[in-house]
Amino acid sequence: MRVPRPGAGLLGPLLLLPLLLAGGCGALSFQLPAQTRKCLKEEMHRDVMVTGEYEVSEPGAPGARTDLRVTDSSGHLLYSKEDAKKGKFAFTTDDYEIYEICFESHAQSVGFRIPDQLIILNVKHGVEARNYEDIAKAEKLKPLEVDLRRLEDLSESIVKDFAYMKQREEEMRDTNESTRTRVLYFSIFSMLCLVGLATWQVCYLRRFFKAKKLIE
Predict the structure, then answer these.
(1) What are phi and psi of 123, to 5 degrees?
(2) Where is the signal peptide (predicted)?
(3) Order of strands, edge to edge, in the sheet holding 28-32?
(4) The sheet that has 97-106: what strands, in order across it?
(5) Which of 99, 161, 188, 195 is the most buried (most CB within 10 A)?
(6) What are residue 125's DSSP bridge partners?
(7) What is the tens place of the pLDDT at every residue in 132-149?
(8) Which long-range contacts (CB under 8 A, 24 or more apart) does 160-166 make?
(9) Kindly report the CA angle at 70 between 68 and 75, in degrees rounded to 5?
């Protein structure tokens, strides 16, 4: 996992964050300079529950604020919060896409340097995002049954990941075979074009030399 570095422009650097965190991993924290924008990206499968908790430190200048936006690669807005300070968000992915969590600082120009804001973000998805305490209360499950439910969901998630990897492998294999076939056809076509061009050039030169009576 890469640690964000302060950016100089308004858009700031783009941080690629693996949201697939190991169980029990702590929240991510980074500094957000004034008038900058930092985004966290991750590819996710379809029908995956994603939850997040965030906390933004107080701005160092009057009227300054930090906005939070969660979007997908198509630009659909999944969550938005102006003047974000502390809260939670949750959504379920509709398709396999790249999802983006962006924090953007807005501050008026002042005569002194505005201190960076501390962003604390904890994102979970899949099995980690499910609240098994609520499930246990709703279904009146015993602790052992809750653990078995968690293991069952984890196993199902692993099976889906392997199935998706297999599907991607098949798609890549089909693409390689299709590309190889196209390259072969293109090579044959190029060779035929070269042979035809060479034959035409020989015939043309032969007629030219005969016209000039240089050969019989």
Answers:
(1) -115, 135
(2) 1-27
(3) 28-32, 117-125, 49-56, 86-92
(4) 14-16, 37-44, 97-106, 65-72, 77-81
(5) 99
(6) 50
(7) 887 888 888 888 888 888
(8) 160/45, 161/45, 164/45
(9) 125
